[in-house]
Amino acid sequence: MASRDKNQTESSKRYDAGQQSKDVPVKSKEDMQQRLGLGLKNMYLSVLDEPLPDDMLALLDQLEDDDDSDSSRSHLNE
Amino acid sequence: MSKTKALPPAEFKQQLTEAIPHLRAFGRSLSGDRDVADDLVQDTLLKAWAARDRFIAGTSMRAWTFVILRNTFFSSMRRKKFTANYDELVAERILSAPAPQQEPLHLADLQRGLMELSDDQREAIILVGAGGYSYEEAAEIANCAIGTMKSRVSRARKALEEILEEGRFTTASDGHVNLTATALENIIGAVEKIAP
Fold first, then answer.
1. CB contact set of B121 (below 8 Å; sequence gap of 6+)
2. pLDDT at res. A31
């Protein structure tokens, strides 16, 4: 609790405390709804845009290989 | 016959590969942590592959693997207390372009807000609000009734709006100092949460 209060003052998180960096801290409800909706979608979409990690692709390749050589499944490095 | 038409391995693999970005997005917003999410996805891929005979061709690979991922995540959360970690680099990404009078919503704030929700509500708002799934699809993934899903989403939305409106988190509109403070506060908050 105490640490949080300290952080808040230091980084001027409280709008009523001292410097107001932006003009209006109070936003309309629709405003927040819109920002939230957009934020959620963008959060999700930004991950979709990332390239596939190599290790995941390698894992699937390996699983497929193991499948092919099913009888002698010795090269699965657990 | 207990086995419904199974997909040939190559096709299964193809569909599984296509699901990966979605699994990562779902896992990351659910866990709040990139590495944890990617481990979860790896686990999910392994489990999905092992269970591939049970996948019914023609149904949604994404929904099927989402179920595996969320079950894995929620059961691992129960086993070991889960510590959410926040990636400062990712936190710098501005999520919604601000209108002149708006301050941007930052990923750190949003993710922190998400982590304050109950598991049920967080999952609901991620699937419907972020992933764009229908209530019906989301209900299927979360294994609940459609009405339940609807009310989870609306309660999650309301709770998130309140959390963000209260300004408990930095809006981080003026640079890196605040961003760092936000990330730090997130970690402190997460620690407080697991060790009350």
1. B152, B153, B155, B156, B159
2. 83
The fold of B88-194 is Arc Repressor Mutant, subunit A (1.10.10)
Interchain contact A43–B (C-beta under 8 A): yes
Q: What is the pTM of this model?
A: 0.71
Distances (CA, A) of A55 to A52, B43, B88: 9, 12, 23
Model ipTM value: 0.73
Residue contact A60–B16, C-beta within 8 A = yes
Q: Where are the domains of chain A?
A: 24-68
Task: Write out residues 12-41 of A within 8 Å (CB-CB) of B.
Answer: 12-15, 21-25, 27, 29, 31-41
Q: In chain B, which residues fall in CATH 1.10.1740.10?
A: 9-79
**Which residues lie across from B106 on neighbouring strands?**
B94
How many Cβ atoms are within 10 Å of B189's Cβ, its own excluded? 19
